[in-house]
Amino acid sequence: MTATGGEDRAIRRAVRRRSRLPTILGVAGLVIVGALVVTAVFAPWLAPYDPTERIARPFLFPSAEHPLGTNDVGHDLLSEIIFGSRVSLMVGLVAATVALLIGTTVGVIAGYYPKRLGSTLMRGVDVILILPFLPLLIVLAAYLGRSLLNTILVIGLLIWAEPARIIRSQVLSLRSREYVLAARSMGAPDRWTIIRHIVPRTALLATGSFVRAVSGAILLEAALSFLGLGDPIQKSWGSTLYWAQTRGAFLTPAWKWWVLPPGILIMLASLGFALIAFSLEERINPRL
Amino acid sequence: MTRRIDLRRVAQYGVVVVVAVTLNFLLPRLMPGNPLALIAGVDVGMLTPDQRAEIVARVGLDAPMWQQYLRYWGDIFTGDFGFSFRSSRPIVDMILERLPWTLLITGLSLLVSAVVGVLLGAISAWRRGTKGDLSMLSGMISIESLPSFWLGMVLVSLFAVQWGLLPSFGAVTPASDLEGWAHVWDIISHAILPVTALSIVGTPGVYMTMRYSMLETLGEDYIRTARAKGAGERRVLFGHVARNTIAPVITVLAIRLGFAFGGTVIIETVFSYPGLGRLVFEAVAGRDYPVMQAAFLVFTAAILVANLAADLLYPLIDPRSRTS
């Protein structure tokens, strides 16, 4: 390095700060996600009321008994929001798992057989990435009908293309590494090489795209529920906002306790996973 | 070389159109239950067998699948999307009357997020690793997690209800005969909140693209060469870095335009803004499937046009891609 003393110090300072930020953000993400998981698991003990029971008059203002008031049919809003964490996390995690399974399979096959099979698969992936994402999601959800399973399927089936691309590029570079070439030249069957040498090496990258997919899936679930396409029985944060919108709560003072809390929680949940993903991605491929 | 790539792109867009149209055709026919309800919009249980047969014949559901498929393509090529179940109006008319509003708010918001995102991204990359860069980056990551509909609701609560500064819904004041500048201001004041919400959620994507692609340029040898030969910071930034960064960013922007279009379904619902997105929501809520399908095709077309524009623009902006 031919930098002068001052510049040298500046660079070193920058490098130090650069390497610290992903860790800070990653820990923040873990704390947020941890708190939400605890809320979801212990929801029945944390929530003061049963969120599906009419326990008071509708449209109550916040009070000691009902810290966030009640909704249009007299459900306790705080309890509803506490239980909402379950839907959000479950849809996020399961949809991302579906996406990861499809994405890894397609990515590994396309990367390991890059010639005809691989390029055909990737053409398909490109087509999926060009289709108008949100309208397609809505059209599919509208035809399939409103249930938790359908929400998970629709989201999972639409978000695997990005993970597939990321994993394919990693596999492409892995397959020309010496140990892979060695295994293949010694006559190891493709399936063995893929399972033993390729898939384990994509684990870190796959974890990164899984966490990113959870973050996206949480937002998509909220959007679908907000449009009235979520499961009508399972109240999620998105459907709480759907009712707030339908009943015009955001046009009254009730927006402070009916609209603000669920939205902040959706953002925190998505952000928690996004921060973990960012921290993982920076570790794999530092771009700061 | 360039020619062949173009052809492959065109083929890809062709495939996208075929996939979109085929999805539209197959979805209502493969769903469980009676397709009549999804395709003709009638309550099947209320009909006598004769009436049912008459409708099946009129809609063409008695023909073999491949004939129905060909007929579907024929209808699309002649611009015939059929009629709405709800309003019985031609769908083409409904779409054409909604389109300008959606173009207005997506166009404006894309402009705002492009300018803000490119500027902030450039500043961030130029000051890479400083406190300013890192806090801007963290802020943008947070904005990416904002649910756009919630942002819209909060904006309405604050600016329309709490402070009464701006209208809360629609594109124009209903039943008002405003003319001239008053009419223009009416339209602008209705567009401010939706455009703000769309601009805010649209900025992080542009920012990230700009920041990363500029960081890449900054690491290139010719930047080091420029510095080594004694070019001033300003000259390096505008003469070398900016010129080489802007091309990929413009491509990304053109592609985002297509997707921004689809994102309006949510924002227009919050603001009851009478655009194409709101039309989709109304169609979904009212089980008006043909309208929903036609809108889906329009969204697909928008994305393809945006992609095509990006393909055509690229060689004009970046001369390197012309020769290679």
Structural commentary:
The complex is a heterodimer of chains A (288) and B (324). Chain A is mainly alpha-helical and 288 residues long. Chain A has twelve helices and no strands. Chain A starts with a helix and ends with a helix. Chain B has 324 residues and is an all-alpha fold. Chain B is built from 13 helices and no strands. Chain B has helices at residues 2-30, 35-39, 49-59, 65-77, 91-126, 131-144, 148-162, 180-218, 221-228, 233-270, 276-285, 289-317, 320-323. In chain B, helix 10 packs antiparallel against helix 12 (289-317) and helix 11 packs antiparallel against helix 12. Classes of the chains: A mainly alpha (288), B mainly alpha (324). Chains A and B meet through helix 1, helix 4, helix 5, helix 10 and helix 11 of A and helix 1, helix 6, helix 7, helix 10 and helix 11 of B.
Features:
heterodimer; A: 288 residues; mainly alpha; 12 helices; elongated; B: 324 residues; 13 helices; 77% helix
Q: What would you report as the Rg of chain B, rounded to the nearest angstrom?
A: 24 Å
The percentage helix of chain B is over 70%
Separation of termini of chain A? 20 Å
Main sheet characteristics of chain A: none
The N- to C-terminal Cα distance of chain B equals 7 Å
**What structural class should be given to the helix and strand makeup of chain B?**
mainly alpha
What is the molecular shape of chain A? elongated
Strand-residue fraction of chain A?
Answer: under 5%
Alpha plus pi helix count of chain A = 12
Strand fraction of chain B: under 5%
Provide the low-confidence segments of chain A as ranges.
none
Compute the number of strand runs of chain B.
Answer: 0
The geometry of chain B reads as globular
